[in-house]
Write a sequence for this structure.
């Protein structure tokens, strides 16, 4: 028997909306020919940003979008992207194919884009090839409300009022493309740089340190040990950001049933990262004043045939959607540990929400998962215990087992929002939902994303795979839910008084 037992009285913590964040890097066709088409484009746009994409993203409700990288961030100098666009310098994007970066999308443009889609900007500053002064001046340009030279320049560029950017990354992947620092050397650079970053005008900044590559607990221990051991503890840090890509198994659209399970299993390793990284942080921050962030995560397949290998363009199938769903469920279940997560990336790169081709645009299965899961944002995560049968698959010659069911639950007043995933590739799953603590369901409604395991949307068939309304007989303290094979369900359940 497969069950999920939910206690609406057993709260874990508030699900921070930023867990549903995105990531948009100057990489491939994410920014140019993706988000941005230019004001003179025949594609309908607002200030150069395509209208169909804005409308689609507003349905997905991204609370925060990280920019401009990624590896790009530690070779990006923000002053290249301000002022008249016709005068901006043309730089080489050394990380992603040595294409020319025109800087047509800079600070003011990206903030405008975030406002159009209803998101907060999260800027990643340059530690690798930049300086503390460079990031400090960027903060002043964005946020100072007074009469400084940088504030005057911002006003001349179209924003007399401060841009009020709260989230600031102090470098990216500084263990690798961001400068190949050791944890101790990066700890020193973080302390130095963060010391000069001010909110201005009473605004509070949220400063985010580069975390470990994957679940590297040694990096985390060494970074925090260095951060705290020189003379006194350093408190000017608010977030710590790890990265985890679960990779691939097969390719984006061609994989066996065993590879279907293998990739989903690799995605489920996110839970170990959350538990072990938070435990390592707790040794130095037992009050959890510093938030655990996963600001790059997702699948990473071989690039689509016929595309530039440096552009990281890949298709996105139902398998990617299940990786997204099960990862988001992990973040929800650990709402007391995770404060932000940013899937890589928003459009046309890696596990994208949206793909474009000229005037055409489609929402991927992953994008639909984000739309389905949006009601979790700001809800109270409540205890949801899954007892699941398993499925056996082969990874090479080795047999492994994977639970069939995953899920999470949150509560807003009398509405219980439950998300469930049936990982089994070919068999339906009957789930018994048990409501504990005296709770009782009065009514419910559900949406389901399901199909053959290779199903995906194409520009010829952009709605081949979309969520459908499903029956949900949610009455009493215990009821049954039928999940089709390879499916994600999002259910709103009204509780009685």
């Amino acid at each position: 028997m497969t069950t999920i037992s939910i206690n609406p009285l057993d709260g874990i913590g508030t699900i921070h909306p930023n867990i549903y964040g995105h990531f948009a890097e100057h990489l491939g066709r994410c920014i140019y020919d993706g988000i941005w088409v230019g004001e003179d484009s025949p594609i309908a746009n607002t200030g150069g940003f395509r209208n169909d994409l804005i409308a689609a993203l507003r349905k997905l409700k991204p609370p925060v979008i990280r920019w401009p990288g990624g590896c790009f961030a530690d070779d990006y100098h923000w002053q290249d992207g301000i002022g008249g666009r016709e005068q901006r310098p043309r730089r080489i994007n050394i990380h992603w194919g040595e294409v020319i970066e025109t800087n047509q999308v800079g600070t003011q443009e990206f903030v405008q884009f975030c406002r159009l889609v209803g998101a907060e900007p999260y800027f990643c500053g340059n530690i690798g090839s930049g300086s503390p002064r460079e990031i400090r001046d960027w903060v002043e340009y964005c946020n100072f409300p007074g009469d400084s030279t940088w504030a005057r320049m911002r006003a001349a560029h179209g924003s007399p009022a401060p841009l009020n950017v709260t989230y600031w990354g102090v470098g990216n992947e500084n263990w690798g493309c961001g400068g190949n620092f050791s944890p101790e050397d990066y700890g020193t650079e973080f302390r130095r740089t963060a010391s000069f970053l001010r909110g201005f005008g009473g605004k509070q900044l949220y400063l985010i340190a580069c975390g470990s590559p994957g679940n590297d607990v040694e990096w985390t221990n060494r970074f925090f040990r260095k951060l705290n051991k020189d003379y006194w503890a350093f408190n000017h840090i608010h977030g710590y950001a790890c990265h985890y890509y679960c990779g691939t198994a097969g390719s984006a659209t061609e994989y066996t049933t065993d590879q279907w399970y293998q990739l989903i299993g690799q995605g489920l390793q996110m839970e170990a990262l959350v538990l072990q990284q938070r435990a390592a942080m707790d040794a130095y921050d037992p009050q959890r004043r510093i938030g655990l962030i996963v600001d790059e995560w997702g699948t990473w397949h071989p690039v689509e045939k016929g595309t530039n290998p440096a552009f990281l363009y890949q298709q996105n199938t139902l398998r990617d959607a299940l990786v997204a769903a099960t990862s988001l469920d992990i973040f929800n279940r650990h709402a007391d540990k995770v404060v932000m997560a940013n899937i890589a990336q928003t459009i046309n790169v890696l596990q994208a929400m949206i793909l474009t081709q000229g005037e055409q645009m489609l929402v991927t299965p992953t994008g639909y998962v984000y739309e389905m899961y949006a009601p979790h944002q700001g809800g109270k995560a409540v205890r949801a215990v899954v007892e699941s049968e398993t499925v056996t698959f082969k990874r090479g010659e080795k047999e492994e087992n994977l639970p069939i069911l995953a899920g999470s639950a949150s509560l807003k007043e009398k509405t219980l929002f439950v998300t469930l995933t049936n990982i089994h590739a070919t068999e339906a799953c009957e789930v018994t939902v048990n409501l504990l603590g005296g709770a009782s369901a009065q009514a419910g409604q559900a949406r389901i994303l399901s199909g053959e395991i290779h199903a995906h949307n194409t520009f010829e068939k952009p709605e081949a795979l979309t969520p459908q309304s499903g029956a949900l007989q949610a009455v009493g303290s215990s009821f049954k839910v039928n999940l089709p094979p390879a499916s994600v369900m999002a259910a709103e359940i009204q509780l009685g008084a």
Summary: Residues 250 and 256 are 7 Å apart (CA to CA). The domain at 382-495 is CATH 2.60.40.1180 (Immunoglobulin-like). The two ends are 29 Å apart (CA to CA).
